[in-house]
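Re: folding output
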Amino acid sequence: MNQATALNMPDIVNTADGNERRVGVEIELSGLGYQQLVDLAAELLGGDATPESRYVSKLETPLGSFIIELDSDPIKDLDLADERLPMSMRELGGQAMEVIDAAAERIVPLEIVSPPMFFSDLSHIETLVEKLRKAGALGSREAIYFAFGLQLNPELPDLKPTTLVRYYQAFAVLYDWLKARHQLDISRKFTPYIEPWSSHYTDLLVADDYSPDQQQMMVDYLESNPTRNRALDLLPLFAHLDKPLLDQYVEDPRIKSRPTLHYRLPDCDIDNPEWHFSSVWNDWVVVEQLANHAEDLAELRALFRDSRKINLRNLTKNWQETSEIWLKSKGYV
């Protein structure tokens, strides 16, 4: 991952109805002031920014509507007339807000949220990231309290349970490999929102005879993982598929319904010149490719199941290394 590379594309770039697949991208960073980031993004993406609320701007561009915000609801919604604030702070007025602004921009991540973009347009994100780095953007390694991420929300080719299960299986067997490549900063390693799926669910998922219908697929997941805090969060997808069933297990207003996966694992290491958006995206494409090559997926699942058995051989072998060797032998990386 020492240099930017071409953005790879998976074999399946269209949905079942023939439209090009899309992906949403979320980038967390610091090092720039809020208005500075808004102005830079408008310049780099060729758009016009409109304030929507305190610390939230919508940027209309040829690619669609981007949102640029401070990633903290209490600060975004802060109003000096709010009676919840101490009277002394309300009386200080603008001076108080200047102090709050200065503190917020140092310890709360700024976030760029893209619209659903065609896969073929992702080079714009690569360019945006590189130019923000040059402008002074900072990522996770800058301070111990930073735990910034780069999240992907890839649209799925279709929503059949058989298709979805293949994607889940591919991610489950590649989790250790992906984490080794994209969880580089200690601040992210100790955060709870990038956890793997429960071991019980993973064992159920990778079994050769696992073939649930949609309801059973959701129930199996939700009984073991009733939380957004997973490296691959399925709750937005489940909200799209069957919101009443999801609500039986999780009620959270932050869950947004969409026909996508929510890949939360990678760091945003934007100030590191050896880190690139293309590296994160291309490793996600490995998941895509494995999910859509049935024989390879079956082979790696079998190896994964064997790796979880308690025996002397597995005590001396590391699944992350084993999976990387396998991926190289098959030409995935």
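--- second protein (sequence, then structure) ---
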Amino acid sequence: MVSAQDRHRLTPQEYFEWEAQQELRYEYFDGEVFAMAGGSLPHADIALNVASLLKAQLQGRCKVRNSDAKVGITEDGPFVYPDVSVSCDERDRTAQKFSRYPYLIVEVVSPGTEAYDRGGKFTLYRRLESLKEYVLIGSEAKTVEVFRRNSDGSWAFIPYGPGETIELASLGIRVPMESIYEDVVLDKDDSGTGI
């Protein structure tokens, strides 16, 4: 991520007004904004599959949002764009600018984002009292890692591999690994053309 503002720190309201005029999406941290990098096609396909699977199972119960929707860690930020977020809190159902009470957050990881998704972003997300599960999905190999908050506040780590079914206890649903990766091509293109 590259800072788009080097001189003036923005208030949350200034950030919302400024970002609405931009072509790109920007995350907000302590008055600074950072451009969101585009993802690979497998990344986009996986995120769409996950959002679609969750929406189909949670219709009418919870609000499923994609990477165009911000999550606010507090009312004043930071504001981030997870790949998929799910909130079953009525306050988020009618939210207009950002969600504040997600139960589940999903990030599709790539080599360029993995360290941030596992480290800094997960540190931010753990500040959300509503968050019950954080899911990391591989974009280069069929891997799903679920971090589940225990009743004592600690986090349990549950890894899944090909052929397994992922249990999302926070939502009371199960998602087959193969459905997450349906129609996703994971082979790397060694030609460098991206074709």
